[in-house]
Specification:
single chain
């Protein structure tokens, strides 16, 4: 016996009402969750530490989609929806908060650039110190070889004379320097790419937040009437 074909579900006004009501609720929850995340990042703050500042700003920029979507959900309303006086006042302040958040994201751009320069300088200084230590070690080995007799050298390095031992150390130092230089250049490249990515993300996110503030003027205008 053939099973009866079921009629497609008609979306009634009641279903639409619950669906539309769900979006602002999820928006409030999403905005609350991201604020908790921001607070958690700042609890163990290490200001003036360029690595901490850089990584923290990066994490905040990486999660910028959350406040954008949350705010969009919060302000999504349909014709015929009702907003109570208390929520309307809240919406007027959330609209202003979107502008504040957008400005803060814009301020992150110069902070990212400054910390990128500071991190680069720290890594360059570390590389210079490594090279100086290697040169000092090489000079120390050369001095020890100059003071040692051929017999002492052969006893410690069988089948090698002083010049061969020194050449081996020089090659090892040279290889280490080349590897360290390549690692440093790769880190600099990755740092610049990440900075560009986060700066663009901060700018686009800030623009989105400012647009949200602009297009929610009705919340600020109407919210002021209920004070």
């Amino acid at each position: 016996m053939r099973e009866e074909e079921k009629e497609p579900l008609y979306i009634s006004k009641e279903i639409e009402y619950f669906a539309v009501t769900l979006l602002p609720l999820m928006g409030y929850i999403m905005l609350s969750l991201i604020l908790i995340e921001y607070i958690a990042l700042l609890v163990q703050s290490q200001f003036f530490n360029p690595n901490w500042e850089y990584q923290t700003i990066g994490k905040i920029v990486e999660t910028i989609w959350a406040p954008i979507i949350g705010l969009t959900f919060i302000f999504y309303r349909r014709e015929g929806n009702t907003i109570g006086p208390k929520e309307l006042r809240l919406l007027s302040w959330i609209s202003r908060f979107a502008l504040l958040l957008g400005i803060l994201y814009l301020l992150m751009v110069p902070l990212l650039v400054v910390n990128t320069v500071r991190i680069h300088e720290l890594r360059r200084t570390q590389l210079i110190v490594q090279f100086e230590n290697n040169d000092n070690q090489l000079e120390e080995v050369q001095g020890q070889l100059d003071r040692a007799s051929e017999e002492q050298i052969r006893r410690r390095f069988p089948n090698k004379n002083g010049e061969e031992v020194l050449a081996q150390f020089q090659d090892e130092v040279k290889d280490f320097k080349e590897q360290a230089q390549e690692t440093y250049e790769a880190q600099v490249g990755d740092l610049i790419k990440l900075t560009v990515k986060w700066c663009l993300g901060a700018i686009l996110g800030a623009t989105s937040l400012i647009l949200i503030w602009r297009y929610t003027f009705w919340a600020r205008k109407l919210g002021g009437r209920w004070r």
